Amino acid sequence: MGSRRPADFDERLRHLFEARRRGDTQYLIEALRRDRDVSTLPAKWLAEDGITDAVPALVEMLGAADPHARWAAVAALDKLGPPEGARARLVEMARRDDDRYVRGWASAALGRYGGDDLTPLLLSILTDRDWHVSQGAALGLGRRGDVVALGAIKTRLRELRRSPLQWYLHRLAFREAIRDLRLRESERRAMGAFYRWRVDRLQRIHGWLRGLLWWWVVLVGLSVLLGWLVGDWHSAWSIVQTIALIIAGLGFVYLIVAGFVELRHRDDSD
After folding, report:
1. Which residues lie below 8 Å from residue 244, measured CB to CB, with a gap of 6+?
2. Are the C-beta atoms of 94 and 110 separated by less than 8 Å?
3. Domain boundary assignment for the chain
4. 188, 160, 163: which is closest to 174 by C-alpha?
């Protein structure tokens, strides 16, 4: 059976490896546009090296006729960070591309984008009969932190157990998504608890300040009353200052005791 490769295939591969060895990224980027049948290698290398200058050429590769070139471009963009201009194309590829690997990679890459409009799309792709496509959607949902998808991903993981071979091939992607979503859920709960704690503390401080203001008004009124009764404003103010110091000391002791009681209660509840 004869080879279908072009006559210069091996020669072009040799040039790619030479460019890789000498670090000629510009040659590799041009190869993405020029040599689509061998573009999977430069796409992989450029993504591994974090060469963001290759992003425009990789976006052009999304329209390649060869599915290998398409999924290599999506995988590279996923690693480098897909630009906003490629979003619509990736959505279309995740929905309708003829190649299952392209659909799976595109679904995973959509997890790099924000916006609530992608959640329903990825949830629908999650139910795809092809497990490679489904795992791509799970990864995308996990990356986006869509906690609402946690139950659906767990359900798909349970369904995956029915096929030992598919379980072996795809379980790690679903577990990674579940781990990411559980982490995000824990962070949200922690932030909610911190917010409630902060609001409680602010309310207490507000109450203390309001009480201090009230006592200040009472003390000023008391000093005026004593000054009028004894006829000596200076002596009256000294008496009021002494009373204020006693009240402040009692308040300080109360704060210490209340804080200690709260810590003991928290330790007992833990």
Report:
1. 215, 219
2. yes
3. 9-186, 189-269
4. 160
Rounded to the nearest 5°, which phi and psi values hold at 128?
-60, 145
Which residue stretches of 127-232 are H helix? 131-144, 150-160, 164-230
Pick the closest to residue 161 from 148, 175, 176, 146 (CA basis).
Answer: 175
Given a cut of 70, whether residue 268 has pLDDT beyond it is no
Cβ atoms 77, 58 nearer than 8 A = yes
* 57/75 Cα distance (integer angstroms): 13
Residues 62 and 103: their CA atoms lie apart, in Å, by 12
pLDDT band per the 50, 70, 90 thresholds, residue 148: confident
For residues 40-60, b (16+ Cβ closer than 10 Å) or e, as one string?
bbbbebbbeeebeebbebbbe
User: What CA–CA distance (Å, rounded) separates 217 from 200?
Assistant: 26
Interatomic CA distance for residues 136 and 99, integer angstroms: 13
CA 110 to chain centre: 13
Q: What CATH code is assigned to 9-186? A: 1.25.10.10
Cβ-Cβ contacts under 8 Å for 166 (sequence gap 6 or more): 131, 160
Find the distance separating the first CA and the last CA of the chain, reported in whole Å: 73
Residues 6+ apart with CB under 8 A from 152: 123, 126
Residues in the chain: 270
Average confidence score pLDDT of the chain: 82
For the full predicted model, state whether its pTM sits above 0.70: no
In whole angstroms, give the CA distance from residue 184 to residue 198: 21
